[in-house]
């Protein structure tokens, strides 16, 4: 049997994550990059020129190209509109988070995906981390789990990306399109949180759906069912566009879930840790940092038998979930393998994140 032809793919959005991680991962995954699309003409053409491909500013040019089989959507904000347009054009889609901000958007995406018959995968790359399956298996062996805690230390962009030596983008993007997209997101936020202030609405979009969503999708990927009722607090008080920290606590059966997302702008690097405590042991999972192409996660599994304790540390190959999710995407496109990061998961995340946001508004 002949090997399948490489998937011809375009990327929408040529920002930091696209340049540093997505495009190199596309090439490592054996796909063929065909086009780079960005609202900034200078950035679209500069990034495209590095790889000898076409640079465009209008996504419609990508959707209309019959030679392009798939798109990776890595633009800022909600990806509902671009995802639906790509599906309607018959493209396979790998869309970065957040895919949507409310369940109505998910229903519209679902209808488009069913009509197209193409693959739709969400960019929950932590679910595809090389150690995620081993971590899930270790958690499944725990008994009487009492605490599941996720702790994130989140710096500003500058400390995270300094090593990339990227040129600042030119200020030549289509401002009218940016304003239209921002207005759309505000409207979709109001459907989810009708009483949100402008500051909290921005926090809901940029932090809760832009970063905390990684924690809910990761916990699901580790086989954990999440509470739907939460208490939450945002601190210090939101002022303007400056992020604040979030502490969310939920209980399911006898297990307490704690999501601690901490805004530490001058902290030198992003840090994320999951701890699961059970009666017969615990699991400690340190996730790979973003913006590092060959970063490795680390997993510590502790088991005990009476007074005897065993600690085992696992690492894996030098590649991240970003590459693994592309390999899984290609497998679904070429072989019909079921998608792990799917719309059912998006619905679950939206339900949990909206509950956290509502609780935080009331605090």
Give structural notes.
The protein has 11 helices and 14 strands. With 363 residues, the chain is α/β, with parallel strands linked by helices. It folds into 2 domains: 8-123, NAD(P)-binding Rossmann-like Domain (Rossmann fold, 3-Layer(aba) Sandwich); 127-321 and 343-362, Dihydrodipicolinate Reductase, domain 2 (2-Layer Sandwich). The strands form 2 sheets. It has an 8-stranded mixed beta sheet. A 6-stranded parallel beta sheet has the order 3-2-1-4-5-6, with helices on both faces. A hairpin with a 2-residue loop joins strand 13 (298-305) and strand 14. The longest helix has 24 residues, at 198-221. The radius of gyration is 20 Å and the shape is globular. The mean pLDDT is 95.
Decide which structural class fits the backbone. alpha/beta
Which blocks of ≥5 consecutive residues have pLDDT under 50?
A: none
Query: Could you give the order of the helices and strands?
Result: EHEHEHEHEHEHEHHHEEEEEEEHH
User: Could you tell me the mean pLDDT?
Assistant: 95
Structural domains: how many? 2
Number of helices: 11
What's the overall geometry?
globular
State the share of residues found in helices, binned by percent: 25-40%
Supply the CATH architecture of the largest domain: 2-Layer Sandwich
In CATH terms, the superfamily of the largest domain is: Dihydrodipicolinate Reductase, domain 2
Give the tally of β-strands.
14
End-to-end Cα distance: 61 Å
Determine Rg (CA atoms, Å): 20 Å
Strand order, largest beta sheet? 8-9-10-7-11-12-13-14
